[in-house]
Design a protein that fits this description.
Elements lengths: L22 H10 L9 E2 L2 E2 L4 E2 L2 E2 H18 L2 H18 L16 E3 H18 L2 H17 L9 E3 L4 E2 L15 H15 L2 H17 L10 H17 L7 H21 L4 E2 H16 L7 H12 L17 E3 L2 E2 L2 E2 L1 H16 L14
Antiparallel strand pairs: 1-4, 2-3, 2-11, 5-6, 6-7, 8-9, 9-10
Length: 373
Amino acid sequence: MLPIIPGGAPDPCPPMPLVVPQVTRAGTWLLRSGIQRPNGGVARYYVADQERHLPVSTEITGYTVSALVYLHSLTKDEAYLERASAAAQFLAHTAWDPVSRTMPYDIGPPTYTYFFDCGIVIRGLLAAWRATGVEGYLARAAAVGKSIATDFAGAGDYHPILALPGKRPVERDSLTWSRSPGCYQLKAAMGWWDLWEATGDTHFRDLYDGVLAESLRTWTGFLPGHPDRLKVVDRLHAFLYFLEGLLPRAGEARCAAVLREGIAMAATRARSLAPEFERSDVYAQLLRIRLYADAAGVEPLDRDAAGCEALRLAEFQVSDSDPRLDGGFRFGRRPGGAIPHVNPVSTCFALQALELWETYGDGAAQPQRHLLI
């Protein structure tokens, strides 16, 4: 196994060709920056101005497994698969809490478990299983899927957070999206859909469809959702999770209509809020969902808008002599400058969005839903 090394508002989009950053630079950052820790887990992000990593996160590790598998599918470089396996081993064996039988938010000792995070872990483990054939990854993904179906069930929805070890629901906060149930949970529920595809157990598909029905009932109230415009940008990121979560049913008329309306809504809000706050993951998610919707025959690609979003996104990639920074993507920026976090989720989303944008329509294979990070 490879060693793990420790470790202002823009002007209107200019009429110039996009120079896509090398996806390999982002992949090298995942391999060499130290964001993946010696135990295989991945730190929440690197705080550049303090030169320190935040603690390991199971959710972020799940995203990174999916990204490393995706990079391996593009390059066939075994280094990516080795690191994906290390992260999947961490999730399946080190992070899994055998006492509570759940996937905790953090470890040492575990204090909370999040419905959303568990769904992302499921999808990461399944990505590793498809790439390696290791049955233990599928078994652990199914165990997580079964646990969240019962542990998080509320009165017609799913609790966002449970306190461990007793699995008591944490008090909800309607102004904090991650502490409230909502349509964004559909991306996590997509883990159930993927488990149905992997196992043939229709109960998993029915669980996804239940969250889909509730999300379609409530999605129009998710935005803006907060009086603070900066918080609306955060909610926009979560709203794009909802649009991604629609993809298993994108061919159905109602879901297709919501995707079309949701893409337009997200793009309009992103443009209006950009002078105050931009998040790289929002640009990456918006670009990806445009490409996936076009490939599904749901919404023709607006190439001008997508090109502008790709250009904005590319600006967040760091060029630096420090390997802890170089090739990674910064989280966001405000009028005062860039936010000094180099973020693995932003990097994973961005490398996929830019690679798809660079190759889309050039005879490359269409975007595959199961490879969506």
